[in-house]
Structures are given as C-alpha cells and as structure tokens.
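Researcher: Please translate sequence to structure tokens.
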Amino acid sequence: MSHLFSKESVFVSNATSKEEVFTEVSEALIKSGDVKDNFLEHVLDREKNYPTAISLANISKDYPNVAIPHTEPEFVNNTKIVPVKLTNPIVFQNMSSPHKDITVDFLFVILNADKASQVHLLSDLVAFFETQDKDALVEFFKLTDTDAIYEYLKENFKA
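Model: Translation complete:
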C-alpha cells in the first residue's frame, strides 16, 4: 500500500480546461490543508512555463496521455500524488516539446513538500506505468469512481 495517496485526494473532474481543473483540485487541497493558499497561482504558472503532458504510447499504444503537474515545495504542506480522472480530455503542452499540444485524459498532480523527493516521485510514476499489467492499467485509466481509482493505486503503486 502506498502512503502517497489518500481517498479524499482522488478526483473525477468534468472540467474542460486546465484552469478549471486546477481551480477545482486546488480548492479541495487548500480546504484539506495539503497545499497553501497560493498553490493554484503557482501550479498554473509552472504549467505554463514548464509543461507536464506526456504520451504513454511508447509504453503501450492503448494508454492515454497524462499530465504530471507540480510546483515548488514552498506552496505545498504534504507530500502525495493526487490522481485526477478527466471525463473531458483537456489539451496540455508536451513536456519534451512544449510547443506541441497533447490531449490528456488523466492527471497525477505531484504535491511534494520536500524538493529532493520530486525526481523520485516522477520516476516512481514512470515505473508504475511501465510495470503494470497492460490490460489492468488500460482498465484503470477508464475508471470514473474515486474509490476504485484509490483502491487500484493503493494496491498496485509501489514507491
């Protein structure tokens, strides 16, 4: 079981823009005390300057594109990964080619209260994508129930 996820910090969002989904998630994370009041402003700014969308097609052509938004530790109170299933795919910019748009279906928002752990959290996510049973992960990405998303991650994410 991974300590990086909490049942209260799993979202299924009907948002139709980055700003809308970040606002929705940020408001809940501020309320829970996971992030500071200025988190939204900084995650939006960081996403604009350092895009976080990645294609998982090199792992499996059946996987959706994801984004891994994050910001600096001074805007975060707790270290965790916040999964967000998007019911409406949203255009983000590609992490490795920022001028390219990429439509994503799932976010893994990294909250890291410790600057040193950010690289580890990113590599743990990539390892998760690479090591899961492909059919099971395809089904995971289709989930729209927050409890089911949480249970899958709790059982299968190894950090």
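Researcher: Any highlights?
Model: The two ends are 9 Å apart (CA to CA).
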